[in-house]
Design a protein that fits this description.
single chain; 138 residues; alpha/beta; Rossmann fold; 5-stranded parallel beta sheet; 6 helices
Length: 138
């Protein structure tokens, strides 16, 4: 089964009415994951980034609902925990590339697991030599 690492950008598109193509694309991926055709993984750091952005820009109840739904398995996404190895790998990526610290965790996870990252974030252009990037909208 093909597995993808999700960047927070992809999940945040679910909540952005202005990004219809991206929202449709992430919904399609979630539907495929629900049918067990693909696997989806997100770093706990990126899950936290989705939470705080929803909390800040939409509302605390929406952010909390997202987190609860994720924990309950309503979203067919596995949350990968942070450990020392992943934190150290993320710090090396951050030190060597022009990416955010949260993105460095996503990149480190993708590199460790050898899975492509699904995103529309242009910052990932800076790490195409490190990981495979699967555009959210192709």
């Amino acid at each position: 089964m093909k597995t993808y690492i999700l960047d927070s950008y992809a999940l945040l598109c679910l909540f952005d009415k202005k990004r219809k193509k991206e929202r449709d694309a992430i919904v399609a991926l979630l539907e495929q994951a629900e049918l067990k055709k693909i696997g989806l993984i997100i770093s706990k750091i990126n899950e936290g980034e989705v939470f705080y952005r929803l909390h800040k820009f939409l509302s605390p109840p929406i952010a909390q609902g997202f987190r609860e739904d994720l924990k309950a398995g309503i979203f067919p996404i596995t949350v990968a925990p942070v450990n020392d190895k992943r934190a150290e790998a993320a710090s090396v990526i951050k030190a060597g590339h022009a990416v955010s610290y949260a993105d460095a965790f996503c990149i480190a996870l993708a590199k460790e697991m050898n899975h492509p990252v699904v995103t529309g974030d242009p910052e990932f252009e800076n790490v195409k030599d490190v990981i495979t990037v699967a555009p959210l909208v192709g």
